[in-house]
Amino acid sequence: RVDDLQRGAADGPIAAVVGWPVAHARSPLIQGYWLRKLGRAGGYGRIAVRPEDAARFFAGLARSGLAGANVTVPHKEAAFAACDEFEPVARATGAVNTLWIEAGKLCGTNTDALGFLANLDDRAHGWDNSGGQALVLGAGGAARAVVWALASRGLKVRIVNRTRARAEELATRLGAVAHDWSEAEALLGQTRVLVNTTSLGMSGKGDLDLDLAALPATALVTDIVYVPLETPLLARARARGNPTVDGLGMLLHQAVPGFRRWFGGCPEVTPALRDLVLADIEG
Ligand code: ATR
C-alpha cells in the first residue's frame, strides 16, 4: 500500500520510499515538489515494510507495477541483497538506497555517496582540489557512503569510531585506515576534510566531544546530521573560521538520480526546495 501519494501533472510511473518506520521520511516532500514543479507525470509516496517482510517485498518489487523506490533505514542492506544489477558504488558499500526496474530486473545504486559529493561541490567549490587526508567520525551505515565518496575524489581516508571493530571493518572494505577514537584529535593536524557521520550532535542526542584546536583553519568541516541545521560541531568550526557545510544538501541531492530514472527531466536542488524542507523540519 502506497501512503501519502504525491501526484504529478498526470498519471504515470509510481515510486515510493520504503522503510520502517517511514512516516518521518522527507522523500515524498522532495519528489512531490519536483513532480509538480517540472510538470512530470507520475506519483510518489511511502510504503511501510516491516524488517521481517523486507526480503519478500524487494524480491517482488520488479513485478509489483512500481517504477522503483528509495530505501531508508533499516532496509538498505536487504535492498542490496535483492538486486539483480548494481552500480559500482552499491557493490562497494553493500547498501542500496535507490531502486529501478530495467527489462524486468531489479537495479540498485547508492545515491547517498553522490549526494554527499554533490552537496560539497555545490557549497564548497574546489574542496577536493588538492587531495590530502579526510577524517571520518563514525562507521555506521552513513559512513560507508561517505568513505567511498571521499576516496573516489582521491582523499586518503581515516576513520575513527566508538566501536573500533566497525571502523576496522569499514576501512578494510573501502581501502581506508582505522584508528582509535582517542587518536582523533591528534589526526586533526593533517586533516583537510572532517566529516561527522555519527548521530552525535543530532537534536536530543549527546554532543561530539572533540577539541578542534589542531585542525587547520582551512579544513572543511561537514556533518551529515541536519536537525539542527547547524550542529554544535559546525558551530564550533565556524566560530574558529573553518569553512562548513551542513547536511541538508546531501538529503536533497541524493534524491536527484531516482527522480531522473523514474520520472525523467532535470530536477534541481534550489534554494526554494531547501526552504521547503527546512520549513518541514522546523515545523
Ligand atoms: P547510520 O546508518 O545513521 O550511520 P548507525 O549504523 O547506527 O546509523 O551508526 C551510528 C554511528 O554513530 C556509529 O558510528 C556509532 O558508533 P558505534 O559503531 O560505536 O555504535 C555512532 N554513535 C552513536 N551514538 C554514539 C555515541 N554516544 N558516542 C559515539 N558514537 C556514537
TrEMBL record:
One BP annotation, GO: amino acid biosynthetic process
InterPro entries: Aminoacid_DH-like_N_sf, NAD(P)-bd_dom_sf, Shikimate_DH, Shikimate_DH-bd_N, Shikimate_DH_fam, Shikm_DH/Glu-tRNA_Rdtase
Pfam families associated with the record: Shikimate_DH, Shikimate_dh_N
Domain Shikimate dehydrogenase substrate binding N-terminal: residue ranges: 17-99
Annotated keywords: Amino-acid biosynthesis, Aromatic amino acid biosynthesis, NADP, Oxidoreductase
Record: residues binding shikimate: 72, 97, 112, 226, 254
Pathway annotation: Metabolic intermediate biosynthesis; chorismate biosynthesis; chorismate from D-erythrose 4-phosphate and phosphoenolpyruvate: step 4/7
Signal peptide: none
Binding site for NADP(+): 138-142, 161-166, 224, 247
Assigned EC number: 1.1.1.25
List of catalytic residues: 76
EC top class, as a word: oxidoreductase
GO molecular function: NADP binding; shikimate 3-dehydrogenase (NADP+) activity
Protein's job: Involved in the biosynthesis of the chorismate, which leads to the biosynthesis of aromatic amino acids. Catalyzes the reversible NADPH linked reduction of 3-dehydroshikimate (DHSA) to yield shikimate (SA).
Family affiliation: Belongs to the shikimate dehydrogenase family.
Subunit structure as annotated in this protein's UniProt entry: Homodimer.
Protein name per the record: Shikimate dehydrogenase (NADP(+))
Species per Swiss-Prot/TrEMBL record: Methyloraptor flagellatus
Gene from which this protein is expressed: aroE
